[in-house]
Amino acid sequence: MKRFSFFIICLVWVLVACKQASKTTSDSASDGTIHISVDETFRPIMEEQIKVYQSSFPKAKIIATYKPEADCWNDMMNDSTRMVIVTNKLTEQQAAYYYDSLKLYPQSGLLAFDAIALVVNRNDPDSVFTTGDVIQMLKGKSSKNYGIVFDGLKATSTVRYFMDSVLKTATLNTSQIMAARTSRDVVQYIAGHKGFVGFVGVSWIGNPEDPEQLSLLNQVRIAWVSCTSCKDSSFTKPWQEEILTKRYPYSRGIYYVLKENHNGLGKAFVNFMKSDRGQLIFRRGYVVPAWRPFLVRETQLKLVKP
């Protein structure tokens, strides 16, 4: 009888200990390590977000791996990452999969708005394209003598965007397209070769305050693209105002998908990116913040002679 009572006490103690251990997490808002997978087209802006967050919380370590969007989703499905930063939010089918396999619903939401810029060599004579020109170039039927350079032919968000949102039912002519390894390689290739149009996320090329981007901007030009909804101009570039008002035709969102069932480092980092500081980083990175007002004001400048 005594042995049985002792066994029951030990069993209760083990169950309580296991329950308490399950509540114990290895990370918090200011301490711990997590792994995230980030669409490579967002690398410049996400590196800034992580750098500022970790400077505020030195004991927190966010290890980001930058890769094609499809690989980010694979990491999430294979349970090898806590969070992904991608160009589309979680679908109902994906949410159902996570609930069936892990018994939790990942959080998903919009962080900012991005755009895909078209860049050409600075010595190319033509840097103005209609959306019809772009479609014909993607089909390989354009009269414009330009090749196309993507950040890969498969599995990248840039390729998927133009296939799904621009070509739609039409076919992408891969024989007319070159594939660079990364977004940086796209810009560097365009800088060294005439006769090509590069497709790249605007955070790689749109920040004139970044020394590396400024150096590349001296060798490439951001192309003008036709705008069907503009009243004052028929062509536009991926400036923040044009992305915000959707006048620039190739705009898209920056989304997070977080798989975390406690108040840990992942949720804290998401809240930081939605906060005033995080949204300011997006704004200073020349994308458009989604959680804080972005005001566009008309001004009149008066020139004063020295």
Q: Any overview of this molecule?
A:
It is a single chain. With 306 residues, the protein is an alpha/beta fold. The protein has two domains: 27-113 and 253-289, Periplasmic binding protein-like II (D-Maltodextrin-Binding Protein, domain 2), CATH 3.40.190; 115-251, Periplasmic binding protein-like II (D-Maltodextrin-Binding Protein, domain 2), CATH 3.40.190. It is 38% helix and 22% strand. It contains eleven helices and 13 strands. It has helices at residues 2-23, 43-56, 69-77, 92-102, 131-139, 157-167, 183-192, 211-217, 240-244, 265-274, 276-284, and strands at 32-39, 60-67, 83-86, 107-121, 128-129, 147-150, 177-179, 196-201, 220-222, 224-226, 235-236, 251-258, 288-289. The strands form two sheets. Strands 1, 2, 3, 4, 6, 7, 8, 9, 12 and 13 form a ten-stranded mixed beta sheet that branches. Strands 5-10-11 form a three-stranded mixed beta sheet. Helix 10 crosses helix 11 (276-284). The longest helix is centred in the first third of the chain and has 22 residues, at 2-23. The relative contact order is 0.18.
In short:
With 306 residues, this protein is an alpha/beta fold. 38% of the residues lie in helices and 22% in strands.
